[in-house]
Amino acid sequence: MSLLRKNSKLILVAVCCLALGAGASAIATAGAAPTAGAAPRAMSHGWRLAKLKRLTRHAVHGQVVVATRRGFVTVIFDRGRVVSVTGRQLTLTEGRPGTTTAKNVTLTIPTTARVRDDRQLTTLSALKPGQRVMVIRMPRRTMVIAHAPKG
User: Fold this and answer.
1) pLDDT digits over 57-88, tens only?
2) Which residues lie across from 106 on neighbouring strands?
3) pLDDT category of residue 150 using cuts at 50, 70 and 90
4) Residue 51 and residue 27: Cα distance in Å, rounded?
5) Residue-by-residue DSSP string for the chain
6) pLDDT tens track for 98-145
7) Does this model's pTM top 0.70?
8) Which of 63, 57, 60 is nearest to 18 (CA)?
9) Cβ-contact 52, 20 below 8 angstroms
10) In 3D, which of 62, 52, 64 has the Cα closest to residue 27?
11) Burial 6-40 (b: 16+ CB within 10 A, else e)
């Protein structure tokens, strides 16, 4: 078994941690000098975590390079809402629909991809328009994780 196959959950956690770390670094470097009467350090830390959580909640596309025993591996993720599924083509709307930042992205999903809908193993053709989806592409594996929209 390959290292990626055996440790796919670990790599997913590493990708999330790297994204969180990058966001925290951006927030920390963008912060201004503290003003007189600034909040205590514990409150400041909580505020930063809230900003970081908000930042990662709105992430729609990312590329992370992970160091493994065999070298560097690039992991790419795309997140959005399903517009359509045609054969192996999955079209997503990244960003918020109705805004100028929303854009449609068409991804070709390999036949070996693992597709989950609400934590249940399923097929790509079972995905419905409007569902929230995250596509994680690694060198040897692609995962599609979908769930029904909130509300």
Assistant:
1) 678 888 888 888 889 999 898 998 999 999 99
2) 91
3) confident
4) 8
5) --HHHHTHHHHHHHHHHHHHHHHHHHHHHHPPPPPTTPPPHHHHHHHHHHHHHHHHHT--EEEEEEEETTEEEEEEEEEEEEEEEETTEEEEEES-TTSTT-EEEEEEPPTT-EEEETTEEE-GGG--TT-EEEEEE-SS-EEEEEEPPP-
6) 666 678 899 999 999 999 999 899 999 999 998 999 999 988 899 999
7) no
8) 63
9) yes
10) 52
11) eebeebbebbeeebeebbbeeeeeeeeeeeeeeee
From residue 11, give the alpha-carbon distance in Å to each of 21, 82, 121, 125.
15, 25, 20, 26
